[in-house]
Amino acid sequence: MRARPLTLIQDDLVDYDTAMERMTDLVGQRQRDERPDTLWLLSHPSVYTVGRRTPLTHLPDPTRGIPVVETGRGGQLTYHGPGQLVGYLIVKLGEDQGIVDYVREVELRLVEALGKLGLPAERRDTPPGSELLTGVWTVETGRKIISIGMRQSRGVTSHGFALNVDGDLTPWNWAIACGMPDVDMTSLKRELGTASMDEVRTAVAAAFEAS
């Protein structure tokens, strides 16, 4: 894997719409070479985000009271909430690397971070004709712990990943996550019995060479 040091920005809980406005600004700055490649770590209040291809049948019942927001990233429905670490990656790719290549790199870096935290994990290749298996799964239980949805514009990536640390997993069951009706979403706390957001942030930043 190529060396790719990133500049680290950290926040706690940031409203999703506010975060999207700032991410758009960061992407513009990177496109103009006004800032270096960046990893922004944060969390969101409860919200479902959907890609452009997400079927209406995958959406949650509105009576659950959690807003649904359409987003410009790739992928299907994802839930964000407290206790989840979100990472937005604003990275200028070389001419020899496309967004699919970079998503694979992101998966491998997150697998490394989870391994350092004591949880064996893996990325998966997508069988022909299947729903895209982007993300990271636990090795021992086969559950999905990280969702990834990204896009590229004028050579710069945006959006990123969501790693379930110690939050409530119930809202995942109120919708069809990642386009996979049978997916079992998990968290570090569910798998290991305990989890520290500070430790997770440190391990993820190290895996992305971010400081």
Q: What is the number of E strands?
A: 10
The succession of helices and strands, N to C, reads EHEEEEEHEEEEHH
Query: How would you characterize the largest beta sheet?
Result: 7 strands, mixed
Query: Terminal Cα separation, in Å?
Result: 18 Å
Give the helix level as a range of percent.
10-25%
The amount of beta strand, in percent, is 25-35%
Main sheet: which strands, in order across?
1-2-6-10-9-8-7
State the helix count.
Answer: 4
Structural class comes to alpha+beta
How is this structure best described in words?
With about 210 residues, the chain is an alpha+beta fold. The protein has four helices and ten strands, in the order βαβββββαββββαα. A seven-stranded mixed sheet has the order 1-2-6-10-9-8-7, sandwiched between helices. Helix 2 crosses helix 4. It starts with 6 loop residues before the first strand and ends with a helix.
Question: Can you give keywords for this protein?
Answer:
single chain; about 210 residues; alpha+beta; seven-stranded mixed beta sheet; about 25% helix
Q: Quick gist of this model?
A:
This protein has 211 residues and is an alpha+beta fold. The protein is 24% helix and 26% strand.
Task: List the SSEs and their pairings.
Elements: E1 7-13, H1 16-31, E2 38-43, E3 47-50, E4 68-70, E5 78-80, E6 84-90, H2 99-116, E7 121-122, E8 136-138, E9 144-153, E10 156-164, H3 188-192, H4 197-207
Parallel strand pairs: 1-2, 3-4
Antiparallel strand pairs: 2-6, 3-5, 6-10, 7-8, 8-9, 9-10
